[in-house]
Automatic annotation (TrEMBL):
<dbReference type="GO" id="GO:0003723">
    <property type="term" value="F:RNA binding"/>
</dbReference>
<feature type="region of interest" description="Disordered">
    <location>
        <begin position="72"/>
        <end position="96"/>
    </location>
</feature>
<dbReference type="InterPro" id="IPR051485">
    <property type="entry name" value="SR-CTD_assoc_factor"/>
</dbReference>
<dbReference type="InterPro" id="IPR000504">
    <property type="entry name" value="RRM_dom"/>
</dbReference>
<protein>
    <recommendedName>
        <fullName>RRM domain-containing protein</fullName>
    </recommendedName>
</protein>
<dbReference type="GO" id="GO:0005634">
    <property type="term" value="C:nucleus"/>
</dbReference>
<feature type="region of interest" description="Disordered">
    <location>
        <begin position="108"/>
        <end position="135"/>
    </location>
</feature>
<dbReference type="InterPro" id="IPR035979">
    <property type="entry name" value="RBD_domain_sf"/>
</dbReference>
<keyword id="KW-0694">RNA-binding</keyword>
<dbReference type="InterPro" id="IPR012677">
    <property type="entry name" value="Nucleotide-bd_a/b_plait_sf"/>
</dbReference>
<feature type="domain" description="RRM">
    <location>
        <begin position="6"/>
        <end position="81"/>
    </location>
</feature>
<dbReference type="InterPro" id="IPR034172">
    <property type="entry name" value="SHARP_RRM1"/>
</dbReference>
<dbReference type="Pfam" id="PF00076">
    <property type="entry name" value="RRM_1"/>
</dbReference>
<feature type="compositionally biased region" description="Basic and acidic residues">
    <location>
        <begin position="123"/>
        <end position="135"/>
    </location>
</feature>
Amino acid sequence: MVRETRHLWVGNLPENVREEKIIEHFKRYGRVESVKVLPKRGSEGGVAAFVDFVDIKSAQKAHNAVNKMGDRDLRTDYNEPGTIPSAARGLDDSLSLSSRGRDVSGFTRAAGGAVYGPPTSLHSRDGRYERRLDG
């Protein structure tokens, strides 16, 4: 079960989307505190962003709604700042763990630029994500 927060990860956004357009879309659910558009990760799929609402009820409304921008169906997931949203996991398996290095919380930096990645403590020996039993 994903912990509900006032922070959402939004995926499959149009390629040239601006923060203002994301705010305009999501303000129907409540006051948006901030939007951070993330660098595109690969040649396929859309852009992703973090959308932070002022309160959790607004984030819940947005997450439970069907969100479309243009012809794209947007994907949403709750996000705890500093962690990887579960909807984004496994989207870019082309980089080996040894080629990644820690950078900003919730990101890793590789030759191709910033990509998502959880702390290395969540990896097992074969590079797959493990579910933490201690919460």
